Amino acid sequence: MGLSLGFIVDAIGGELHGKPDFMVEGLAPLDTATPADLSFLDNVKYRSQLATSRAACVIVSPEMRDLALTRGACIVSEQPYLYFARLTQLWKKSMARPMATRRHPSAVIDPEAFVHPSARIGALCVIERGASIGADTELKSRVTVSEGCIIGARCLLHPGVVIGADGFGFAPSGQAWEKIEQLGAVRIGDDVEIGANTCIDRGALQDTVIADGVKLDNLIQIGHNVRVGKNTAMAGCVGVAGSAIIGEHCTLGGGAIVLGHLALADGVNVSAATVVTRSIRKAGHYSGIFPIDENAAWEKNAASLKQLHGLRERIRALECKLKP
Predict the structure, then answer these.
(1) Domain spanning 108-286 has what CATH number?
(2) Known active-site residue 224
(3) Which 3 state secondary structure label does DSSP give 123?
(4) Residues 6 or more apart in contact with residue 215 via CB below 8 angstroms
């Protein structure tokens, strides 16, 4: 089982320096590749691995062409990492085993739900009344799509995803809580990928909306009435509280938190573990991480931080006294 270099270049493009009929048996990193593997070099800091790699062929940028040719075959591409991504898609498609059925017999699909004939529904999935699944969308095992929720075309939902559970809405009633029924749904656009065990809550009155091209990692929580713009990506364990608005082409690093009712502009990049406590109106890279330290030192620094406001006021008072 494998693909020839010629077949790969015909399918994806690139400039081949090597034998078109050479069969590649696997894809692997530079440092572990065998003489039957195809690898790639995207970051120049790993160029030292290129000379010692045993890979049969390496995908490289034009700047790395001459160095790659000193060791053997290569495919030259302006964007090696993007080329490699498309190669993995080609590889999976070429090696995929035909599906026995597009709907696993253990899946539970309500008669009033719509599932496009080309969609693929995995084992133990539940699709409730009024839900809609678009063309070429795949639901892996144990995915739940609650009533009235819509998923677009060419989406991929990994195991355990829950779409359309109730948002967290309760009104105080004396010493208890009164439930606010969640009357909206979830609308997911086309070409969206959602990682394992991620949950997207239905809206309270209006729908929660995930736009086209959004990529969500595992274990992400999206609260009710959140809106996520096109082609935004979030890493694992991100939490977005209710009614927050995330712009287009944003990135949120792992463990980042966005508080409710805030807005992030298009093109905002949030570092891992950052807590966003105010709206961000301008594109850019934002971080809010207190550096890790030995506990004793951290406690001293934390105690000093608590005094900053008082110190600021004292400095302002001194400045006022010093002004002529």
Answers:
(1) 2.160.10.10
(2) yes
(3) coil
(4) 192, 193, 231, 232, 233, 234
- Separation between Cα atoms, residue 145 and residue 128, nearest integer Å: 6
Each domain of the chain, given as residue ranges in start order, spans 3-95, 108-286, 295-324
Contact at 8 Å (CB) between 304 and 297?
no
The verdict on pTM exceeding 0.85 is yes
Pair of tokens at residue 53: 């790699």
DSSP 17-81: ES-TTPEE-EE--TTT--TTEEEE---GGGHHHHHH---SEEEE-GGGHHHHHTTSEEEE-S-HH
Reading the block at residue 60, the tokens are 């490289």
**Exposed, middle or buried by CB within 10 Å (0-12, 13-18, 19+), for 99?**
exposed
Tens of pLDDT, residues 32-83 = 999 999 999 999 899 999 999 999 999 999 999 999 999 999 999 999 999 9
CATH T-level fold of 3-95: 3.40.1390
Selected catalytic residue, list 17, 116, 158, 224: 224
Rounded to a whole number of angstroms, the distance between the first and last alpha carbons of the chain is 84
3-state secondary structure of 320: helix
